[in-house]
């Protein structure tokens, strides 16, 4: 293994856990929250129907079919048995899509919970006004804060096809503005979107590298019941990675091209409801996926950033 990637243990890729260890000297866990937000790509402000793959409760442990429980209750439920530190992860829907006073109320409520040392706020690249950026910059002075942007693909054709309602230019502009306030940015991408090829995935990594984000979350395409994507899947129009073995080479190619200093927050999608997931069904846990990635990189004799070009 070359000396290019020094941070993190075991060092094959720069894990979020290793990053937290460097920052805090101990593990930090993210507790996913549903704060009752909506999304401008669903309510008609930007679009209707949402992104073609999105049935939001599928990636939140708190179903939107019912009113979400109070944040304090969600935070309490998400804690480990042993004492630990946490980030309140505003995950469901668009977590900057509300009046400023409401955002402040929710973020303050989360931060007031014991052992919560920061916030991770998931949003769209087109949903951050200068006033919201000011608000987030103020929180970043007092706590550990990440802003998470859904990008999904570097290809506008794909973004249109999946009804994202924003462009790659919107993403790059949002990252620039957010980073100019000194905020950490994590980008979400999906491998396997309709119409994309392995070359499309690596081009997305090129854009991620150029954008200057500090973190990345990889997802594999999942088809969820009740989404527009599920309709296309039924007619055979949407191939998926039917096993981890098929996903692994593409993920490892992306890791090799990724800037070695970019923190990897996640390697693959997680869906909490097996009943809602149409495909693919992988039996592996997150830990097993991580072990498989390390195994593949070891076999190749490579690591995150081994093919990164500045
Ligand atoms: S993925 Fe995010 S932006 Fe897209 S519809 Fe769902 S909540 Fe909205």
Give your account of this protein's structure.
With 310 residues, the protein is of the alpha/beta class. Helices cover 36% and strands 17% of the residues. It has ten helices and nine strands. Strands 1-2-3-4-5-6-8 form a seven-stranded parallel sheet, sandwiched between helices. Helix 7 (198-211) packs parallel to helix 9 (244-257) and helix 9 packs across helix 10. The two termini are 20 Å apart. The model is unreliable at 1-10 (pLDDT under 50).
What are its keywords?
single chain, 310 residues, alpha/beta, 7-stranded parallel β-sheet, 10 helices, 17% strand, disordered N terminus, binds iron/sulfur cluster
Q: Largest sheet, if any?
A: 7 strands, parallel
Structural class: alpha/beta
- How much is the average pLDDT? 93
The Rg value, from CA coordinates, equals 19 Å
Query: Helical amount among residues, as a percent range?
Result: 25-40%
Shape: globular
Portion in strands: 15-25%
Low confidence ranges: 1-10
Give the CA-CA distance, first to last residue: 20 Å
Q: What is the ordering of alpha helices and beta strands?
A: HEHEHEHEHHEHEEHHEEH
**What is the tally of beta strands?**
9
What strand line-up does the widest sheet have? 1-2-3-4-5-6-8
Number of H/I helices: 10
> Which small compounds were modeled alongside the protein?
iron/sulfur cluster
Write the layout of secondary structure elements.
Blueprint: H1 16-24, E1 28-33, H2 71-78, E2 85-90, H3 100-111, E3 116-123, H4 130-142, E4 144-152, H5 156-161, H6 168-180, E5 184-191, H7 198-211, E6 215-220, E7 223-224, H8 228-234, H9 244-257, E8 263-266, E9 277-279, H10 286-300
Parallel strand pairs: 1-2, 2-3, 3-4, 4-5, 5-6, 6-8
Antiparallel strand pairs: 7-9
Helix pairs in contact: 7-9, 9-10
The protein binds iron/sulfur cluster (SF4).
């Amino acid at each position: 293994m070359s000396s290019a990637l020094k941070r993190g243990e075991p060092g094959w890729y720069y894990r979020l856990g290793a990053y937290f260890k460097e920052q805090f000297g101990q593990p930090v866990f993210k507790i996913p929250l549903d704060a009752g937000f909506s999304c401008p790509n669903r309510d008609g402000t930007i679009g209707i129907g949402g992104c073609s793959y999105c049935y939001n409760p599928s990636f939140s442990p708190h179903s939107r079919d019912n009113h979400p429980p109070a944040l304090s209750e969600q935070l309490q439920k998400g804690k480990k048995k042993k004492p630990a530190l946490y980030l309140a992860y505003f995950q469901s829907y668009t977590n900057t899509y509300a009046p400023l006073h409401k955002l402040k109320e929710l973020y303050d409520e989360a931060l007031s919970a014991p052992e919560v040392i920061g916030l991770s706020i998931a949003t769209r690249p087109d949903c951050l006004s200068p006033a919201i950026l000011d608000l987030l910059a103020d929180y970043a002075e007092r706590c550990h804060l990440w802003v998470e942007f859904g990008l999904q693909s570097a290809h506008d054709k794909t973004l249109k096809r999946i009804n994202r309602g924003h462009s790659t230019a919107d993403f790059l502009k949002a990252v620039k503005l957010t980073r100019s306030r000194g905020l950490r940015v994590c980008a979400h991408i999906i491998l396997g979107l309709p119409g994309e090829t392995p070359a499309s995935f690596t081009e997305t990594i090129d854009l991620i590298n150029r954008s200057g984000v500090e973190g990345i979350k990889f997802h594999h395409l999942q088809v969820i019941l009740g989404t527009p994507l599920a309709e296309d899947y039924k007619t055979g129009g949407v191939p998926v990675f039917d096993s981890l073995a098929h996903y692994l080479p593409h993920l490892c190619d992306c890791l090799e091209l990724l800037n070695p200093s970019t923190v990897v927050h996640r390697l693959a999608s997680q869906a909490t409801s097996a009943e809602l997931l149409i495909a693919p069904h992988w039996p592996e846990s997150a830990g097993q996926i991580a072990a498989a990635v390390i195994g593949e990189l070891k076999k190749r004799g490579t690591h995150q950033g081994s093919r990164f070009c500045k």
